[in-house]
Amino acid sequence: MNPVLVEAWRGPAVESFHRGALVVVDAGGQAVWSLGDVQRPVFPRSAIKVLQALPLVASGAAQALGLTDAELALACASHNGEPGHADTAAGVLHRLGLDASALECGAHWPGLDTAGRALAAAGREPTALHNNCSGKHAGFLCLACAMQGGAKGPDLQRFVRGYVQPDHPVMREVGAALEAATGERLAHAPMGIDGCSIPTYALPLKAWALAFARVATGQGLSADHARAAQRLRQAVARSPFHVAGTGRFDTRVMERLGERVFCKVGAEGVYCAALPEQGLGVALKMDDGNTARAAEVVMAAVIEALLPLSDDERQVMRSLSDVTLRNWRGTEVGALRAAQALRALSSA
After folding, report:
1. Is 294 part of any domain?
2. Is 88 part of a structural domain of the chain?
3. Residue 306: is it exposed, middle or buried by C-beta count within 10 angstroms (0-12/13-18/19+)?
4. Is 204 inside a domain boundary?
5. Which Pfam families does the annotation name (predicted)?
6. Contact 138/75 with Cβ under 8 angstroms?
7. Percent of the chain with pLDDT strictly greater than 70
């Protein structure tokens, strides 16, 4: 059974808790920290969007199309669907002579409540541009443009139809990048369909951590993928709003810590991170699939323990790893706290 990583306190007592697994590895695959079953295959969901974006940069598509930091950050994003996100995705599609109808991620209301209410108040319905994965999918279409020798408009539209299918050339290129980063064969892994309709593969948690150590260092990647990883990390650090959005953990942490951390949330309690200065990759999975309540607390505790931080930075990270809970009147009622097993590991 995996250890308790996060406790939910109400007053002086633990009311509930969240179990999970965590692993931190170097680019050689050596585990620096390990808690729980880190060999169990897990679907990484959106936590690995930076890996899926490697071909976008490595192919030369990003440079040929002049993609900005914001547009590259959006390719790695699970964004709120705020106007700045939807407009950025639309701008990428405009370069390709396409519109939102080319995106095969589906439409949903913006994740940020105020953005959704503003959209509804204007009498508008959400489009695929508001999908939290629209930037990633726009990046896939940019990759397709490069694969087709710069084709745009109707010619590109014909090629990209069905690009979310596992056997489409775009998904085969993305899959090859995942294999190169993790060192695993996807043909041997359980495959599912992600929320945005692309394939998702279950690999050992340790393999995902290794991939992020390689993103952090470039070690173990091809020269083109290493350069792509560095460019994407820089883009997200320069435009952290576009990787998540207002009030979100990933945006808040990278606004504060810049290129020292690349962290990315995934559904069902998955989180991954690259720590370039330490040459480390992090992957964690909460057993109950809890993301905002539990996985963020674990990731904050890991960053707090592994990075040299100023007093102000440490205070910010502690506020994310030891979260005060308040009721609707603003009264303090408890806390979410990194559990002793996690704090003990970080102090070892």
Report:
1. no
2. yes
3. buried
4. yes
5. Asparaginase_II (PF06089)
6. yes
7. 99
Q: Strands 199-201 and 280-286: what pairing?
A: unpaired
pLDDT in tens, 31-47: 999 999 999 999 999 99
Cβ(130)–Cβ(100) under 8 Å? no
The boundaries of the domain holding residue 176 are 37-281
Do the beta carbons of residue 298 and residue 20 sit within 8 Å? yes
Q: What is the DSSP string of 193-236?
A: E-TTSSEEE-EEHHHHHHHHHHHHH-TTS-HHHHHHHHHHHHHH
Q: What is the pLDDT of residues 206-252, one digit of tens each?
A: 999 999 999 999 999 999 999 999 999 999 999 999 999 999 999 99
The DSSP line for 275-319 is ETTTTEEEEEEETT--IIIIIHHHHHHHHHHHS---HHHHHHHHH
Rounded Cα gap, residues 168 and 325, in angstroms: 46
| Domain assignment present for 144 | yes
Is the pTM here over 0.90, yes or no?
yes
Looking at the structure of the chain, the number of domains it has is: 1
Q: Per-residue pLDDT for 129 more than 80?
A: yes
- Phi/psi at 18 (nearest 5 deg)? -130, 125
CB of 10 closer than 8 Å to CB of 253: no
How far, in Å, CA of 348 to CA of 335, rounded?
24
Structure token pair of residue 93: 């599609």
Cα separation of 298 and 294, whole Å? 7
Q: How far is CA 203 from the centre of its chain?
A: 16
C-beta separation of 49 from 38 below 8 A = no
Q: Which residues contact 310 (CB under 8 A, 6 or more apart)?
A: none
